[in-house]
Amino acid sequence: MALQNRFIEYSDGDQLYEAYVCWDDSRAPGPGILVLPTWMGRDNFTHEKADKLAALGNVGVAVDIYGKGRGPASLDEAPEWMMPLKQDRATLQVRLHAAVDALAALPEVADGQIAAMGFCFGGLCALDLARTRPGLKAAASFHGLLGRPENLPMAEIKAKVLIMHGWDDPMAQAEAVLAVAKELTEAGADWQIHAYGHTVHAFTNPKAATEATHYKESADRRSWQALENFLAETFDS
Questions:
Q1: What is the reported pTM?
Q2: Which one is the CATH code of 3-236: 3.30.450.30, 3.40.50.1820, 3.30.230.10, 3.20.20.80?
């Protein structure tokens, strides 16, 4: 195994972005997996996930959601960066599609073999790609926000969808889980939802330590294993 990494630049026509790419030279070309970040934007957490994906034979791409050199400097600043995109899903979707296009153009990525995964706000982003991107093979959400965008009509979802959810997550309560299950069913998606008991938001983040956001080792481990199974089913079958 010879893991390589580099940064790439791409744009959506208005804004320049910078993503982190990691792959195994001995196994390329392989499936390309977008790693969509929390409201903090691309950081070491997403780089580490891209590295783990590369170790499995994928091309991991930690996505820049705010623009090169832009983004919150602290948790206190994160809402002012995330909320405009959460409220303007059409603009968000343009950014997400630009990232997919950049990933698809990489020589390390096998043709047509693209998936997306995300954490918290990135989970919402991954689900929006499943809703809007023809040809996306799969989308996985870790403790993601689940509400469907108002700018889209109900449409068929061909991507496989995996949602990993903390049952006590105050940011995605039971009614949101039932609503997304209903949406995915009506859209004809091949979907699954894994709910972890006694688990709140941000359960994969070792730095999360509040009442509403808290790391949970068992849910972190189980959800990553679920992701590995999901990707193997998607790309090895």
A1: 0.96
A2: 3.40.50.1820
